[in-house]
Specification:
By secondary structure, the protein is α/β, with parallel strands linked by helices. It folds into 2 domains: 266 residues, Rossmann fold; 188 residues, Nucleotidyltransferase, domain 5 (2-Layer Sandwich), CATH 3.30.420. The protein is built from 13 helices and 14 strands. Strands 3-4-5-2-6-7-1-8 form an 8-stranded mixed sheet, with helices on both faces. Strand 10 and strand 11 form a beta hairpin. The longest helix has 17 residues. The termini are far apart.
């Protein structure tokens, strides 16, 4: 319909934003080779990729898309690039011509993926000029592009440049940019250099990647820090999020991929997680802060620090689920100062400290030569009635936490509020060391959580019924039989056995 067509001459920054599926419906003559008829398209109901919509609607200056193969992450990266260059962004108001880069890992990946996506979605009539590194500008898809000059709605031209990480850091210096799209995870030195290119224009960047490099700098610097880094947004795409991927394609891909890489290829999860203590802890265990109509059990668990930080977690037991609602980790304060801060945090949650079961590491009951009053007693003197009778069995506690994070049937019972940034950092970077012990590093809030989890499980476990007279007699008889049976004189050893 004519009313649905936008005329280029009428375009300005005041034009209503275009929809995702019809943004290319511009009143520009199509380039049709003489003697051929224009292709006939059949109208169909557009499918909506909701995760792509969330990405495009985000106003964060730094956006990361973690997705498996065929999840649609490169498509939204390409379209975002085109929208910035043409000025036709459906969700962000752009008021000037924009110059940017598309950064790939290699020349071949640039040609086959990012460059191909740009050429696929950028209408030819919007291209003013193509400059090639190799190949012909008349067939740019078969060569390596240096840059594309693009028309925009401001009557000027934008520039989409292409770079690849094989060129080295030096090729990423000396220019000012409005945007950068990283297709897959770049080396950290290239990423940092590109951030400097955006500095004076206040530019933005986005990264679309399948996290195949495991616990790389992206995992440590972006994924683990996403909740505490301003102007950073992370999006996660799986095969199930892509409405254009059929069930048959999914089954085919599942059958052709090895199980050990399926997590990253299908779900966009970070690989090399076999060393994690809690590999089943993922985004499903992280929830937005909320309130509860009724709480069955309140817990405050403290792991006191001397040279190390003092850590604490607040937990609410609701039915058969346990929620970590707040955390605390501070170093360099006295017990009095810690107590004051912990009490203030407890009151801010609306909790009556008299109804809270307060736990503390049993080591806090010990007196030291430097102080005749134990740490536990000091906390009690400052208004926190701590209980040092905690279960510190490490193996048992870790197994119990892992089970609550998600059992074999996929049932999850332990959840962490998103604002518990200290605990989230530790849970997602807690690895096994040598033998059966985790690395004793950055685990203070985890220890506090472990004490509370064991107390909650014990509180939910129904007490054993006392034995009657006959039951006690039977138990005593079994003990006597066992003692007699395994006495040294009744054991027979084979001297020839080695």
């Amino acid at each position: 319909m004519e009313n649905d067509v936008i005329k280029v001459a009428d375009l300005s920054t005041d034009v209503p934003l275009l929809h995702y599926n019809n943004w290319t419906q511009i009143d520009v003559p199509k380039q049709v080779r003489a003697g051929t008829a224009a292709a006939v398209t059949v109208a169909s109901v557009p499918k909506v990729h909701h995760k792509q919509m969330q990405f495009h609607q985000s106003l964060a200056k730094s956006r990361f898309v973690f997705g498996g193969n065929r999840t649609g992450k490169s498509v939204c990266g390409a379209l975002e690039t085109i929208w910035y260059a043409t000025g036709l962004h459906p969700y962000t108001k752009i008021d000037h011509a924009c110059d940017g880069w598309v950064v790939s890992l290699t020349r071949q990946v640039q040609r086959d993926v990012a460059q191909a996506k740009i050429l696929q979605y950028l209408p030819p009539e919007w291209i003013v000029k193509v400059v090639m590194v190799s190949g012909s500008a008349f067939a740019p898809a078969h060569g390596v592009i240096d840059f594309i000059i693009v028309r925009n709605v401001f009557g000027a031209h934008s520039k989409i440049g292409f770079r690849n990480c094989e060129q080295g850091r030096e090729r990423f210096q000396g220019v000012s940019l409005d945007f950068v799209w990283f297709d897959e995870e770049p080396p950290v030195e290239v990423y940092d250099e590109c951030l400097l290119r955006l500095l004076d224009r206040g530019g933005v960047h986005w990264v679309t990647m399948t996290p195949l490099k495991g616990r790389s700098w992206v995992y440590e610097r972006i994924y683990l820090q996403q909740h505490r880094t301003p102007d950073l947004a992370c999006f996660f795409m799986t095969w199930d999020d892509n409405p254009y991927l059929s069930d048959g394609e999914k089954r085919y891909l599942e059958a052709t991929l090895p199980p050990d890489v399926l997590a990253s290829r299908k779900y966009g999860q970070f690989v090399a997680g076999e060393g994690l203590v809690f590999p089943n802890f993922d985004r499903a265990n992280i929830i937005e802060p909320c309130t509860f109509d009724h709480v069955d059990h309140y817990y405050l668990s403290i792991d006191p620090g001397y040279r190390n930080p003092t850590a604490a977690v607040w937990l609410a037991g609701v039915g058969e689920k346990l929620f970590v609602v707040a955390d605390y980790e501070v170093a360099g304060l006295t017990v009095a100062e810690h107590s004051q801060a912990i009490l203030a945090r407890t009151r801010s949650l609306g909790w009556d400290v008299r109804q809270v079961k307060i736990l503390i590491d049993s080591a806090a009951a010990q007196k030291t030569s430097a102080c005749e009053v134990s740490t536990a007693e000091q906390y009690r003197q400052h208004g926190l009635a701590v209980d040092t009778n905690v279960n510190k069995n490490l193996a048992q506690g870790l197994l119990q936490m892992k089970t609550l994070f998600g059992n074999a049937a996929g049932v999850r019972s332990l959840f962490v509020f998103q604002n518990c940034v200290n605990l989230l950092d530790e849970l997602q970077s807690y690895y096994w060391g040598d033998g059966e012990q985790p690395k004793k590093l950055n685990d203070h809030t985890i220890d506090a959580l472990r004490y509370a989890v064991m107390a909650w499980v014990q509180q939910l476990t129904p007490p054993k019924a006392p034995l009657g007279i006959l039951g006690q007699a039977k138990q005593q008889m079994l003990k006597k039989v066992a003692v007699k049976r395994f006495a040294p004189e009744n054991l027979c050893f084979n001297a020839n056995r080695r």
